[in-house]
Design brief:
The structure is a single chain. The chain has 201 residues and is α/β, with parallel strands linked by helices. It has ten helices and six strands, in the order ααβββαβαβαβααααα. The protein folds into two domains: 125 residues, Rossmann fold (3-Layer(aba) Sandwich); 65 residues, Orthogonal Bundle (Arc Repressor Mutant, subunit A), CATH 1.10.10.10. It is 55% helix and 10% strand. Helix 7 crosses helix 10. It is elongated, with a radius of gyration of 27 Å. The termini are far apart.
Length: 201
């Protein structure tokens, strides 16, 4: 009721209906509203299933999940169900109102706490990054020339660096990649290039 009253006081928003159960929501919400705000926990079901069924019948409707639960699995469930937003009930009223406006215009919205959790989950799923991606531009250029079999002096001549400077770079490269020999670094580079070919080459 608090949310309904808050929305009704907005000049550009209107509550067209509210329902207490998953069954009634699924039966009446499609093609009746632009945005549906759903609780995750409902007396006869859950908001994810409601979201999925509403979106299947009315793809144009935008859905915000409003809940007390911010576990990453639930956020991913909401996204997979087709929700455009996931806000915690602890969010301030104006945040919910702006969220409704945002998704109504085709945007997406997740509370900062939810977003942090989601990105952490995504990063974990992606696994550790290749250390080659952590090299500086100069280190990457030198590694490429190491893979071509060039000596420190030859690399220095091509990049206008002293042999001593190149040697320092090589030590850093080997340290970052976790190797002791240039041949190991060269092999790593070759494997990396085969898995991530340069689109310009």
């Amino acid at each position: 009721m608090g949310l309904k009253n808050l929305i009704d006081h907005q000049p550009d928003l209107e509550v067209v209906a509210d329902y207490a159960t998953a069954e009634s929501a699924i039966a009446h919400i499609p093609r009746q509203a632009d945005v549906a705000v759903l609780d995750v926990r409902l007396p006869d079901g859950n908001g994810f299933d409601v979201c999925r069924q509403i979106k299947a019948e009315d793809p144009q409707i935008q859905v915000i999940m409003l809940t007390s639960f911010g576990q990453d699995e639930m956020v991913l469930d909401a996204i997979n169900a087709g929700a455009s937003g996931y806000l915690l009930k602890e969010s301030r009223g104006h945040t919910v109102i702006e969220g409704i406006r945002t998704v109504a215009q085709g945007g997406s919205l997740f509370s900062p706490k939810v977003t942090a959790t989601l990105f952490q989950r995504i990063r974990s799923a992606q696994g550790p990054a290749d250390p080659i991606d952590e090299l500086t531009p100069n280190e990457a250029k030198i590694l490429a020339q190491i893979a071509e079999g060039k000596t420190n002096r030859e690399i220095g001549d091509s990049l206008f660096l002293s042999e001593k400077t190149v040697k320092h770079y090589v030590s850093n490269i080997l340290s970052k990649l976790g190797y002791q020999r240039r041949a190991e670094a060269a092999a790593h580079y070759a494997r990396h290039r085969s898995e991530h070919p340069d689109p310009e080459s």
